[in-house]
Amino acid sequence: xxxxxxxxxxxxxxxxxxxxxxxxxxxxxxxxxxxxxxxxxxxxxxxxxxxxxxxxxxxxxxxxxxxxxxxxxxxxxxxxxxxxxxxxxxxxxxxxxxxxxxxxxxxxxxxxxxxxxxxxxxxxxxxxxxxxxxxxxxxxxxxxxxxxxxxxxxxxxxxxxxxxxxxxxxxxxxxxxxxxxxxxxxxxxxxxxxxxxxxxxxxxxxxxxxxxxxxxxxxxxxxxxxxxxxxxxxxxxx
Length: 238
What we know:
- The protein is of the alpha/beta class.
- The chain has 8 helices and 13 strands.
- The longest helix is centred in the C-terminal third of the chain and has 19 residues, at 164-182.
């Protein structure tokens, strides 16, 4: 009973503001790599999730709108059925398969890009090379007002396992590289693998980042830490 009362009080004093979807790859099921199963969904499944959310009265908002909501005061006046769509890493299939669906429904989205993947257009993996969005594709995508590009380090390493100076380099240099390529400020960030420590948070807090995102945690609620905004992983895993 005490736990239920505690949860009720928490939900009352920390109302839900938004669900932040975390996605990785979006590709047809006949192209699924079983090694990627927890991190890949089909275009049909993405469209199903969007339609299901719309039918349930959710609205899709941008990371900028989420920032305004979490950084504001009038929580009781805000609709609680909001969704932000985010993608991690910068896979080319996001552009090929997810983007047309998001464009069809006029849905804003954010892609957190690892700078090395942008430079090479490839992610090396034990299952073979994976095509990533290169600078040309990202520059084209970034021109669409629906799209926000965020940082995701240079090398996609677990930040909490790195020395302090390397953490700073991975974060700050990745933002510089993206800003130089896209000619616009990068104001949002996601921690690769959700890995961070107090050093990471101190670095993020001192630079021009409005919000940074972890890889778990459920819904974003009133008074959540803007340096550790939670997300919900969207998976088609059976």
